Amino acid sequence: MMKCSVIKVPARSPNDMSALQRYIDESLINPKEVVAVLGKTEGNGCVNDFTRGFAVLALKNLFAPYKEASAEPVSFVMSGGTEGILSPHFSVITRSESDSIRSKQELSSLAIGVARTPDFMPEELGRLAQVDQVAEAVLRAMEGAGINDAADVHFVQIKCPLLTAEQVQEAVLRDASTVTEDTYKSMGFSRGASALGAAVALGEIERERLQDTDICHSWELFSHVASTSAGSELAYCEVIVFGNSAYAEGPYFIDHDVMKDAIDAGALKRILEKYPDAEMVQVLAKAEADPTGNIRGKRHTMLDDSDINHTRHARAVVGGVLASVCGDPMIYVSGGAEHQGPAGGGPVAVVFRRNEHK
User: Fold this and answer.
1) Going by DSSP bridges, is the β-strand pair 248-249/2-10 parallel, antiparallel, or unpaired?
2) Rounded Cα distance, 292 and 49, in Å
3) Number of neighbours of residue 128 by Cβ within 10 angstroms
4) Of 108, 194, 223, 229, which is the active-site residue?
5) Which long-range contacts (CB under 8 A, 24 or more apart) does 51-57 make?
6) pLDDT tens profile 231-251
7) Which residues partner with 41 through β-bridges?
8) Is the CA virtual torsion 275, 277, 281, 283 positive or negative?
9) Pick the catalytic residue: 3, 8, 159, 286?
10) CA spacing 20 to 30 A to 48: which of 70, 114, 181, 185?
């Protein structure tokens, strides 16, 4: 049997491990059971956001004494940018398993699987090679979580690499072409290819119909549950699958909806209203500036701002909208939703904890 949990931990800076250490010392978190950490760090979320790598280094140093050499590495997914009211924090994901024979439970509980792709060559990013590797990793993560039905998957968090100027030049010297020479645009291509990989794995789109030119162009192709974030701190993709399974136990579970645009508060309201007796633990969402330049028929200027990148605008907007509904600014809102939900919108998921006394 598998038992999973999600625990939010505040952070005063990207390398602030004091609260997390306190949770460990007070036995609120068993460090040996931690399989992944999702973080919101207070950087710019762009190519040069080194708060992500800074946080990963601090987290690795903290967990190193608790992990045996043979243990699976912890998956660290850091999303830079806490614009507006978003509060920097870490979502610590634990998973424990027993040797007992699986028995089907009356209620499904949270099940989590993790996987990673091989390292990518610069010319593979943002192309079908990335789609295929991510699709394979999502399927492996589902298998690890004991989730057999794609309908039981409610959120797929993927951390993916981006192109640096050095990598672009290295590819040129090998007579290999990259999907773009613009390092910032490479973030979008990488996020988009990763999202389409999740969509392929979950049967949301057919792999046969995909071409390289669809990535970041054919917006009608998207996943309802993928959330991808790009960074320079890794060369492969980290994949974390969140779902429910009748063969998992514990009070935690997850559900999702899809925001049609950046101000669609109704998507989160619908999820919360379905479970009035459960405690909301964490909200996981994507944010995007609508590529048409309009929201509900009205012009927005997020794509035209040369001072502040549109992904930063979008995180602030969606963070504010969702926090106003759930009453908590310590939520995970990631910017850049290429092929993650409909254009201009994005998936939103909620991890709940059942009140065991009811």
Assistant:
1) parallel
2) 27
3) 18
4) 229
5) 51/14, 51/78, 51/80, 52/14, 52/78, 52/79, 52/80, 52/231, 52/232, 52/233, 53/78, 53/231, 53/232, 53/233, 54/14, 54/15, 55/11, 55/14, 55/15, 55/90, 56/233, 57/15
6) 998 999 999 999 999 989 999
7) 80
8) positive
9) 159
10) 114
Catalytic site includes residue 159: yes
Q: What is the mean pLDDT of residues 134-162?
A: 97
The DSSP secondary structure of 31-55, one letter per residue, reads: GGGEEEEEEEESS-SSTT-THHHHH
Matching residue, tokens 């993790």: 114
Q: Identify the sign of the CA torsion 346, 83, 300, 303.
A: negative
CB 58 within 8 A of CB 18: no
Is-contact 231 211, C-beta < 8 A? no
CA–CA dist 194, 337 (Å, integer):
11
Q: Cα 302 to chain center, whole Å? A: 23
Least Cα distance to 116 among 7, 11, 241 occurs for 241
Helix (H, G, I), strand (E, B) or coil at 106: coil
pTM higher than the cut 0.85: yes
Tell me the β-bridge partners of 295: 298
